[in-house]
Structures are given as structure tokens and as C-alpha cells.
Design a protein that fits this description.
The structure holds two protein chains of two kinds. Chain A is an alpha+beta fold. Chain A contains 15 helices and eight strands. In chain A, the strands form three sheets. Chain A has a three-stranded antiparallel β-sheet. In chain A, strands 6-7-8 form a three-stranded antiparallel β-sheet. In chain A, strands 4-5 form a two-stranded antiparallel sheet. In chain A, a hairpin with a 5-residue loop joins β7 and β8. Chain A is globular. The N and C termini of chain A lie far apart (54 Å). Chain B has a three-stranded antiparallel β-sheet, with helices on one face. The longest helix of chain B has 12 residues. The chains are: A alpha+beta, B alpha+beta. Chains A and B meet through β7 and β8 of A and β1 and α2 of B.
Chain lengths: 393, 121
């Protein structure tokens, strides 16, 4: 009765929805034994806005402002995929110039997203300085976006069949200046961070994912490429004129957080290469396929009758999604962003399923965290690069 | 069982698992997109599998033990549409609060306390 049994008391700590770092509202219930982590359970849903259900009641043009709110750091990708879906369903060709503009903006958005990944990642590890440096670069990207699209972050720029407006005069020169400036900045980050022994101690060997495991867990993006799997949708799927540029896919073999960091820095340099090549070779021509605005179906004359005035708003003729289903995908900076679109023969989709990269990359968190110390949780969570806007939608 | 056959064929990447309802009052479908990830592939082959379940008691065996990436995605299909997956380790609501009643993404779902402003007659 009085024999003390050596039972460990496990402490359950709640890393609540509000963080000091910018990952968003993610709640982790962590079971600790001293400082080793035994288990962790992520609880999502604090930012769930019902984007999928809303999508079933909006036309594509009406839905475009919503999509930038999924991944609010790399907004062009969400717009690109929203527009790519109906384009591929309806077999709509995108003019060359629009495709090049899209590629340039997408790669700028990728750089912006990786920069804002780097800041909180370093801030979680403890280095506060890069956080300010990245915002300096991100402000330049915001200025470029504002000149081209009109909004700094939530641009409503892509349309079915191209982009909404052409690039302003002199934008290309400004963008080339930015590319040259940014290459010097990347070398500055490399000097500051990559060979820093404190950083390497924190980050090397932390959160290792093997290649087979990564594929089984459905990871995508830099997490997959850091584990040795050379899978980049831009090369594999051949979409949006990425084939015309000469660039490599950065990848590493180890699968720890340091490998993910190196893959993302490599992706930033590759993006600069793509942007420079695209800017030099951008063709003239139209920037939007105006055939998509040509509707030749007759409106039902019964609803134009006098009796039906106050029933509801009648939709103006919009792009009708054919009755097919399609899975479109895009290589977002966080991973593979996908839309499974089931079209009805009406302007609203029947089902608009978003395959968010952050949601699927987050599944591996409880497994990666076991047997790590408490301080490594933030490193691993930071290196997975989630953003709650798309995890919860 | 079908899943194991496909896995044996080499489709090792479950890209996306989603669910939708086919017609209001009809069946519910659970869709799996699979691809084969290999080195140096161009235009990989993909397979899309749909499993239909009746609306009253939708139960589908979970593929979590074959492709672990179905973990959160099946929880989300359960949460949004009510399809319960057998042998899933933690089938709880993931996006909605735990005490929510109802399956939001079904077409016959009525959002509680949601009154739209309509055009007055």
C-alpha cells in the first residue's frame, strides 16, 4: 500500500491559439515529460471561414477576392489556381504575354512568401534581426505589386483568360532593378544566417523526414524536396510557360529543418533567375483572352417579365462552368495547392474543394515532434511553413 | 482492399481526398486522387477514385493505414459531410468546433441563426 510506484507525471501544456510569432491561430496541446515532448495534438479550426461552402454560391469573378485570403502571403498562387481551373475546364487559351506576366507575378509572390517565412522562422529560433530585413525587401515587392495590380497584398488581378490589366510603363525596368538588388540581399542572408554556428546547432538534425515517409504522408513543396524527392510541379506538369525558362529545382537530401531552409533560399534565387529571363523575353500582345467575355447563350426571356421584378437579382451573363470535374494544381511556395472543381452547367460550381498545402503538411507535426525538446517545437513548426488562412480556410 | 492493390501498383502519393454530395438527397461520394511519385517523371499518371456511400449511414473504410496523408483530410470529410471512416485513429471534428451539430457541406444543410436580408416585397 505504501510502496511508491515510480510513475511519471506527464505535464500537458497548451500552446494556445495566439502565438507571438506569425504562424496564425494554431492550438497545440503538448504532452511533456520534463522537457522532452511525448505527444502533441494540433487543434485547428480557429480561422475556418467556410470558403468551400461560400464558393458554391459565387461565380468565379465574385470569388476571386475570397481566394487571396487563403494564403495571404503568396496571394498570386491562390488567384492563379482559381482562374486556371475554369480555364482548363473550358479549354481557354491564355495569350503569351498574359502567361509571362502571370509567371513574373507568381515568382515575385513566391519570393515574398519565402521572405515572410524566413522572418518568423528566425524569430522563433531567437534571431530578431532578419525579421526586419525581410520586411524591407517585402516592401519593395509590395510596391511592385501595387504599381501593377493596384493593391499591395490582396490583388484581384487574375481573370479567366489572362490578367486584368497590362503592366504599367516602366514596371519592367523597376522589376529588373529589384532583381539585381535582391541578389545582393540573398548573399547577405547567406552570410548572416547559413554559416552561423548558433543557427546550425538549433536547426541541424531537427525534424527529419525520410523520403518514403514524406511521400506517404502526402507532403509537398519544399518539405518534399528537402527529403530527397525531386518533385516540383512546375517541371512535372508543364504549366504556364515555365518550360521556356532555364532554371533548376533546388533540393536536398537530409530532410531536416536545415535542408528545408536551404531549399527555400535556393528557390528564391531560382525565382530571381526566372523573373529576369521572363522580363527580358516578354512578348507583346494582348493580356487577356477576351473571348471569355463573349457569351452567346440566350437569356431566358421569361425571367425578364414584369411580374418577376422583385424576386431576386438576376446574374449577368458570366462564364459558365461545364459539367465536368477537374483537379488543378499549382506549385505554391508552401506546397501543392490544388482545387478539385466540379462544375455544374451554371455559373456556380457544384463543389469547390481546396487542397491546402499547409493542412496536409501539418499532419506530420505530431510525428516529427516526438522525442524532441520543447524548444524544437517552434523550429519544426516554423520549418513546415504553415499559414492558418489556408489550413483552416 | 482496393487501396492496397493500388498501392502495390506504385501509386504512392495520395494527393487529395475530398468528399462531396452527388445530388441533394442522393449519395455522398468520397474522392481520392492518387499519383505516382518517381524520379524524373514527366506528366505523371493519376488516378481518381470515387467511393459512393448512402446518405443515411455513410461509412467508408479509412485508407489512413495505406497512405498516411489521409489523416486530416478524412477528418475534414467527416466534419464537413458526415462520412465516418472506419478504423481511423482519431476521427474527430477538425475545422468546426467539437460540439457542432450538423454537416456543413451537405447541400441540405441549414446554417443555424443565419438570416439573409431579402428583397422586401
Amino acid at each position: 500500500m505504501n510502496v511508491p510506484s515510480p510513475k511519471k507525471d506527464l505535464m500537458i501544456v497548451n500552446m494556445g491559439p495566439q502565438h507571438p510569432s506569425m504562424h496564425g491561430v494554431l492550438r497545440l496541446i503538448v504532452t511533456l515529460d520534463g522537457e522532452d515532448v511525448i505527444d502533441c495534438e494540433p487543434i485547428l479550426g480557429y480561422l475556418h471561414r467556410g470558403m468551400e461552402k461560400i464558393g458554391e454560391n459565387r461565380t468565379i469573378i465574385q470569388y476571386l477576392p475570397y481566394v487571396t485570403r487563403w494564403d495571404y502571403l503568396a496571394t498570386m498562387f491562390t488567384e492563379a489556381i482559381t482562374v486556371n481551373g475554369p480555364e482548363q475546364l473550358g479549354n481557354i487559351q491564355v495569350p503569351k504575354r498574359a502567361s509571362y506576366i502571370r509567371v513574373i507575378l507568381l515568382e515575385l509572390s513566391r519570393i515574398a512568401s519565402h521572405l515572410l517565412w524566413l522572418g518568423p522562422f528566425m524569430a522563433d529560433i531567437g534571431a530578431q534581426t532578419p525579421f526586419f530585413y525581410i520586411f524591407r525587401e517585402r516592401e519593395l515587392v509590395y510596391d511592385l505589386f501595387e504599381a501593377a495590380t493596384g493593391m499591395r497584398m490582396m490583388h484581384n488581378f487574375f481573370r479567366i483568360g489572362g490578367v486584368a490589366a497590362d503592366l504599367p510603363h516602366g514596371w519592367i525596368d523597376k522589376c529588373l532593378d529589384f532583381c539585381d538588388y535582391f541578389l545582393t540581399r540573398v548573399t547577405e542572408y547567406q552570410k548572416l544566417i547559413t554559416r552561423n554556428p548558433i543557427f546550425l546547432e538549433r536547426v541541424e538534425g531537427v525534424g527529419i523526414v525520410g523520403a518514403e515517409e514524406a511521400i506517404n504522408w502526402g507532403l509537398s513543396g519544399p518539405m518534399l524536396r528537402a527529403s530527397g524527392v525531386q518533385w516540383d510541379l512546375r517541371k512535372v506538369d508543364h504549366y504556364e510557360s515555365y518550360d521556356e525558362f532555364d532554371w533548376e529545382v533546388p533540393w536536398q537530401k537530409e530532410g531536416d529543418s536545415l535542408a528545408r531552409y536551404l531549399v527555400r533560399i535556393g528557390e528564391m534565387t531560382e525565382s530571381i533567375k526566372i523573373i529576369q529571363q521572363a522580363l527580358e523575353r516578354i512578348p507583346g500582345g494582348p493580356y487577356e483572352n477576351l473571348e471569355t467575355r463573349h457569351f452567346d447563350r440566350e437569356r431566358d426571356p421569361e425571367w425578364d417579365d414584369f411580374e418577376y421584378r422583385f424576386i431576386s437579382k438576376k446574374t449577368s451573363p458570366t462564364f459558365e462552368l461545364p459539367k465536368q470535374e477537374l483537379y488543378v494544381r499549382v506549385e505554391a511556395p508552401k506546397g501543392e495547392l490544388g482545387i478539385f472543381l466540379i462544375g455544374d452547367q451554371s455559373s456556380f460550381p457544384w463543389r469547390w474543394k481546396i487542397r491546402p498545402p499547409g493542412f496536409i503538411n501539418l499532419q506530420i507535426l505530431p510525428q516529427l515532434i516526438k522525442r524532441m525538446k520543447l524548444a524544437d517545437i517552434m523550429t519544426i513548426l516554423g520549418s513546415i511553413d504553415i499559414i492558418m488562412g489556408e489550413v483552416d480556410r | 482492399s482496393t487501396a492496397v492493390i493500388l498501392y502495390v501498383y506504385g501509386y504512392n502519393y495520395l494527393r487529395s481526398q475530398c468528399a462531396y454530395d452527388v445530388a441533394p438527397g442522393g449519395l455522398l461520394a468520397s474522392v481520392y486522387h492518387l499519383t505516382r511519385i518517381e524520379y524524373g517523371i514527366d506528366q505523371p499518371e493519376e488516378v481518381c477514385i470515387k467511393v459512393f456511400a448512402p446518405r443515411k449511414k455513410p461509412r467508408i473504410p479509412s485508407v489512413f493505414w495505406v497512405w498516411k496523408s489521409a489523416d486530416f483530410q478524412e477528418r475534414e470529410s467527416y466534419d464537413m459531410l458526415g462520412i465516418s471512416y472506419d478504423k481511423h485513429p482519431r476521427l474527430k471534428r477538425i475545422l468546426m468546433p467539437e460540439s457542432w451539430i450538423g454537416w456543413p457541406l451537405r447541400k441540405d444543410y441549414i446554417a443555424p441563426n443565419f438570416y439573409e436580408i431579402q428583397d422586401a416585397h
